[in-house]
Design a protein that fits this description.
Structural class: mainly alpha
Number of strands: 0
Low-confidence stretches: none
Number of domains: 1
Distance between the termini: 10 Å
Helix content: 55-70%
Length: 57
């Protein structure tokens, strides 16, 4: 398994853990992402690009 795949899996796990822990209320709105692998990979790629992180292929 490549480093990029491992990195993406870890980030997806972190995203899932975050979404499961978010308490949604009027005082604490949250944007819920579909638990869709393609959507999460796009979020990870966008976050990496915005932060300048280069994920090796």
């Amino acid at each position: 398994m490549s480093h990029a795949v491992v990195t993406q899996l870890v980030l997806m796990w972190q995203m899932d853990a975050y979404l499961e822990s978010v308490a949604i209320s009027v005082d604490n709105p949250a944007i819920l992402l579909e638990r869709n692998e393609d959507n999460l990979l796009r979020v990870v790629a966008a976050a990496n690009a915005a932060s300048g992180i280069v994920v090796p292929a």
